[in-house]
Amino acid sequence: MSKLNESDVARIYKREFAAAHIIAGHPKCGRQHGHNYSLLARVYGKSEEWLDFDEIKRKVDGVIDERYDHRDLGNMTCETLARQLQEQLSNLFKTRVKIELWETGKFGVETL
Ligand SMILES: [Zn+2]
């Protein structure tokens, strides 16, 4: 993956979705429960170039709707979900993508 330059920009798309999961061995989260996740996908590129915001929306929504929204994610944690989304979206956009994934209004995960 290419290194970021100071002149690069991140286009940001925000998407909410709902899913269930279970964290085996956790005293509270070991019971199946759901979250309303809030995802911020940052798609990096050069500031002299543009990327159609609608294309970003279509691609991110496609991944979320096909694989995650209103699904049972099993024992996937917020951490592994964020990394998985980063990999899938980086491959789709063929550029660096960073993910901010909020599991609640107060706690979330950010990929590096
Ligand atoms: Zn949870």
Summarize the structure.
The chain is α+β, with helices and mostly antiparallel strands. The protein has two helices and five strands. The protein starts with 7 loop residues before the first strand and ends with a strand.
Chart the SSEs and their pairings:
Layout: E1 8-21, E2 33-46, H1 53-67, E3 71-72, H2 78-93, E4 97-102, E5 108-110
Parallel strand pairs: 1-3
Antiparallel strand pairs: 1-2, 2-4, 4-5
Helix pairs in contact: 1-2
The structure holds zinc ion.
Residues 21, 29, 33, 35, 103 line the site of zinc ion (ZN).
Heteromolecules bound? zinc ion
Which band does the percent of strand residues land in? 25-35%
Radius of gyration: 15 Å
Given helix and strand content, the structural type is: alpha+beta
Number of strands: 5
- Side by side, the strands of the main sheet go 3-1-2-4-5
The major sheet is characterized as: 5 strands, mixed
Helix content: 25-40%
Determine the N-to-C terminus distance: 12 Å
Alpha plus pi helix count: 2
3D shape: elongated
